[in-house]
Amino acid sequence: MKESRDGTRGGRVSKSSSITSLPLMLDLDDFKGDFSFDALFGNLVNELLPSFQEEDADSSEAQSGTVGNDVLPSGHLRAPSDAAKFAQGLFSPLFPEVDALLSIFKDSCRELIDLRKQIDARLNNLKKEVSVQDSKHRKTLSELEKGVDGLFDSFARLDSRISSVGQTAAKIGDHLQSADSQRETASQTIELIKYLMEFNSSPGDLMELSPLFSDDSRVAEAASIAQKLRAFADEDVGRHGIAVPSVMGNATAGKGLEVAVANLQDYCNELENRLLTRFDAASQRRELSTMAQCAKILSQFNRGTSAMQHYVATRPMFIDVEIMNADARLVLGDQGSQASPSNVARGLSSVYKEITDTVRKEASTIMAVFPSPNEVMSILVQRVLEQRVTAVLDKVLVKPSLVNLPPVEKGGLLLYLRMLAVAYEKTQEFARDLRAVGCGDLDIEGLIESLFLSHIDEYPDNEQACLRQLYQAKMEELRAESHQQSESSGTIGRSKGASIASSQQQISVSVVTEFVQWNEEAISRCTLFSSQPATLATNVKAVFTCLLDQVSQYIRDGLERARDGLNDAAALRERFLLGTNISRRVAAAAASAAEAAAAAGESSFKTFMVAVQRCASSVAIVQQYFAKSISRLLLPVDGAHAASCEEMATAMSRAEGVALKGLQQCIETVMAEVERLLSTEQKATDYRSPDDGNAPDHRPTNACTRVVAYLSRVLEAAFTTLEGQNKQSFLTELGNRLHKGLLSHWQKFTFNPSGGLRLKRDIIEYGEFLRSFNAPTIDEKFELLGIMANVFIVAPESLSTLFEGTPASIRKDAQRFIQLRDDYKTAKLASKISSLWTSSS
């Protein structure tokens, strides 16, 4: 292969020289690196292919020259003969280098086979060498593992010995530390015993003590030693059960430590007083470092309680009387003037803000001085609430007596309750501000509740008494206004006076709204004072019951006053009833008085209808208030909501009872006037007009016209004031009474055919008016009356066909109508009707 490449680099050689350059030599290096078969093949054949390509090009040129010479004179080519073509095919091969290439390929195959064998041999040798090296490596690794295991064992033994040595050293250190501690304790004990003997030398003698106890620079050390000695001596005395006061006078130095206890107590008291004096002096000079040192030493005496209480007690806001007087003036204002809740609220806000600012300033000092600042803040805040706040509240909240209520002119119970609510709310805000400043572990909310405990315990009774007082005052005010208006109106007639009195004392929706506003304010106070849902529900139920009682009583009283007008009108009607044997002059006067009574009745009817309307509006206001504000507050207590609903229904039913009585009286009033109009306006000739040959009158009778006009006028109030089922029930009852009254009225007359037509026209007129009642049963009754009126119009012989197939009740009513015919006797209708009804049945 190398020779082939060298031959290529040496230039192009002929065919013979290319063949003689074999044999071809291949080397393993030819297959290393980036091996490419195409490159190998090209290197094998490129030496031969160029000569073949040149020969091919030469033969092509020769053929073209020949073709050029064979052109005929005529311009056509001369085709070579078949013999020439065959000869050329025999002596000129298509690919003359095939043999050379085959030889090269064969040599290449032999050399490649040899190379493969060499490679296989080398691979076998390498496998053997790898196997030998692998076994050596495994043997070396096994030996290394054994060595490593030995090292681990050695390290474990070394670690165990190190641990043992460390434990021994620690035990030795503990023993040394214990010995040192015991030595130090023994030394301190010796010192303490020496000091204890000094205190136990003689009663009340503190002059022979060591300089330690009189050196001001070593006060802290002296205090610590004194506390230790005192604890030891108290324990010894307690163990032996000896009372210290019994041996104070005659104790000797060998009977125990009673003398030491007494002397130590005296010394500790003297030392504590000395430190408190120094603390006060430093406090006046604002030397916080000295105050902190004294406070730290004093903390060893009863955990510093005396120092903390002494510091709080000496604050100016607790000892300056002028400050407390200023609080009262700021909250209540000038003496002699009645404070209002709004002014008290502003005053309390100012006082509480000033106290909060003072506490905040004191808090900064306490944090810098005392080792336990939270405990000092607890004492300070508690003192603030118990002294300054209590002093202000006692002047603001004067607890009233339920036996002798404060007069309404001076605010009554309402002023006290509003003051209580304002004070409670502002004090709660003040407590939150103090909590933000810091009050240690003090239960400030519980302390605030204790300040108002006596007031809140009696709050439900006071609230209900307040609502009752407001109601009574309002009723007195309304009565006074009514009386004043009556006096200003002068002397009036009885009927007019009754009407005016009723109008002046009508039910007012604004008054009921005022009741609800009182109750709403009371509920807000209930919510403020009742922290537990169950307590809140109980108080709310009691307060709402007061509203129900007030509204029910007010409505019933108003309806009763409206009924009084109806009763007065009825009395007037009874007084001026017309007799039979009276003169024309008396009859005219009586008729005029009856007209006045009718006018009073109409006025009282309208007045009562307005009262009923306002009663319904008042009930709706209460129901809406219950659903909006009360209902949700009663849910936490089982049965409270249902009980309140039942109480509300009971209260309203009492008012409904009065209203129903009044509505019944209204119907009586209307029917009385209808009967009066019918009796005075209905003439006998209306239904028995003479047969004078004139055309019958198809107009309603004058009585019918007057009655319908009266009903239209007076019932306009009922249509506009009554609503829903109340309206329907009232109109239905009135329609039934009118139907019954008309039947009774018509029974007094006899009818001829033209009168029957006139009656039927009246029935149509009444029926058309009564359709505005929207009462189907009433419409049916008047339709039936129209049918009944036909018995006066038809001929006697047609009566048999008029009621064929009708029920017996209708035939019975028809029989009563038939008896009113003017020809009832002359036409002998009694026997005919009897036989007719008998055959029909």
From TrEMBL:
The keyword DNA repair does not apply. Residues 681-700 are annotated as: Disordered. Pfam families: Sec10_HB, Sec10_N. Residues 99-215 form the Exocyst complex component Sec10 N-terminal domain. Residues 221-831 form the Exocyst complex component Sec10-like alpha-helical bundle domain. GO terms for biological process: exocytosis; Golgi to plasma membrane transport. Keywords: Coiled coil, Exocytosis, Transport. The keyword Cytoplasm does not apply. One of its GO terms (cellular component) is exocyst. Belongs to the SEC10 family. PANTHER family: EXOCYST COMPLEX COMPONENT 5 (PTHR12100:SF0), SEC10 (PTHR12100). This is Exocyst complex component SEC10-like isoform X1. It comes from Nelumbo nucifera. The lineage of its organism: Eukaryota, Viridiplantae, Streptophyta, Embryophyta, Tracheophyta. The gene is LOC104587548.
